[in-house]
Write the structure tokens for this entry.
Amino acid sequence: DLYRKVFVFRKDPSDAFVVLQAQLEQPLRNFTVCLRSYTDLSRPHSLFSYATKAQDNEILLFKPKPEEYRFYVGGKFVTFRVPEGRRDWEHVCASWESSTGIAEFWLNGKPWPRKGLQKGYTVGATAAILLGQEQDSFGGGFDLYNSFSGELTDVYLWDAGLSPDKMRAAFLSLRLPPALLAWNSLSYEVKGDVVVKPRLRE
């Protein structure tokens, strides 16, 4: 249970990463991924990378620059422009629905204008799920200059789109529905220089 704890990725650039184990019974036609990050990086970095053997960017949350997030599904992406952070924790949730191809992006509990992405697509179930690196092949192919350096916490993956109330609940760390990946019952393996520490402040 990682309640009130964080992963600290200490080096920049870094070859470290964290492997997450999720029990996916079937491919995903809807999903929501949420996490909280704290970094002073201005270069591109990966926050959440979900690769299958067929597609290395099956699901990817990527930050190419401080005022931009990219959300990939099945190798295609949409861009969400954001105010440059005040060097504080940023909480992001991204959800996607196959039937409409609607991609939602929430930053610090507020929704951005929705965008269209990969209507009718299905996300593969046999996946390598990593924090801290961007996969260019299944479970590997890292570029050190896309690595994450800083602190990550509150990582979740659901096989459904969350309602606006639940999106806000995720931001506020309130009670959440059962998830494929849940921070308070995370099955993970640290590879390299990543340290689990208490959160410094709420």
Observations:
- The longest helix spans residues 164-171.
- The chain has one helix and 15 strands.
